[in-house]
Amino acid sequence: MKIQLASAGRWFCVALLFAGRLFGDDAAGTKSALQPFIEKHELAGAVALVADKNKVLSVEAVGFADVNAGRRMEANDLFWIASQSKPITAVAVMMLVDEGKIALDDPVEKYLPEFRGQMVVVEKDADHVLLRKPIHPITIREVLSHMSGLPFKSAIEEPTLDGLPLPAAVRSYAMTPLQTEPGTHYQYSNAGINTAARVLEVVAGMKFEDFLDQRLFQPPGMKDTTFWPNAEQDRRLAKSYRPDADKKNLQEFPISQLIYPLSDRTRRFPMPAGGLFSTAQDTALFCRMLLNRGELDG
Asked: Dihedral sign, CA of 248, 22, 274, 77?
């Protein structure tokens, strides 16, 4: 059984196997499990969706999407899904692996020549950095699994993570020395996932966001999953909250990793590792498709 919990400011998608039931298949059970977090001001609001591979079993909205305005959470509200963008990007890349257009153990430089000659840090202190060639060039498998040695981001991805076109961001990774030998150390890396998406662009011959829309979002009907929420979707966007200084209440804060307005397609660019917005229902379509080994309702 699949449980998805989308909360104001955070998104959780957890796969669980049940001998019994955690919440039950009814919405009332889900609501009663979440309501105490609302009452203790640990959660502003949430959309909880329970599904198996065949159908959605229950969906329930609790709390508030906008605390100050008193706007209650609705089941079709939008959330910034942050790093839940990563599995969506990985599935898109794996579609090309399935089609024989990419091999997981291919070096990235086969598709992105700017990575040729990339170096790895051997020693570093305040006065100097010692570099050498890595044992092998980074591979598609390694950038997808956070084992490439690439950093979380490059030095020029400031002050937000969505201010560079994908080709420019990925070129900056190629110019950045690897922090560890490829394949030897796990290090969570937006740069790796973004690099895999850029390989997809080159191989598919189309922009990453267009590939997602045409090949991954439209077929199952994921109509609310996007890098740029439109005006109607923005009205359904749950605000983000975090604990205040006293840890007794919640305070609203903007998404600091992204440029506002979120609908701006001239200054904001697709960020494959964490730029997507979606709903619980849309993400349930994606998860059910995975549970059905790549097929959904025919």
From this structure: negative
Average pLDDT over every residue of 61-74: 96
Helix, strand, or coil (residue 41): coil
In the structure, what pLDDT confidence band is assigned to residue 26 with cuts at 50, 70 and 90? Answer: low
User: Contact 201/96 with Cβ under 8 angstroms?
Assistant: no
Mean pLDDT of 208-224: 97
User: Of 150, 157, 155, 154, whose CA–CA distance to 257 is shortest?
Assistant: 157
How many whole angstroms separate alpha carbon 249 and alpha carbon 242?
Answer: 8
Q: Which residues of 150-182 are buried (b: 16+ CB within 10 A; e: fewer)?
A: bbebbeebeebbbbbebeebbbbbbebbbbbbb
d(CA 276, CA 257): 12
Rounded CA gap, 271 and 63, in Å? Answer: 29
CATH number for 86-210: choose from 3.40.50.300, 1.10.3720.10, 1.10.10.60, 3.40.710.10. 3.40.710.10
User: Cα–Cα distance between 109 and 13 in angstroms, integer?
Assistant: 33
Domain ranges for the chain:
2-77+229-262+279-291, 86-210
**pTM of the predicted model as reported, rounded to 2 decimal places:** 0.89
The predicted pLDDT at position 15 comes to 38
Count of alpha carbons within 13 angstroms of residue 20, beta-carbon side: 2
Nearest to 148 by CA among 173, 113, 129, 125: 173
pLDDT in tens, 80-93: 999 999 999 999 99
- For residues 194 and 275, the answer to whether their CB atoms sit within 8 Å is no
* Pairwise CA distance, residues 235 & 278, whole Å: 13
Tokens encoding 287: 């998860």
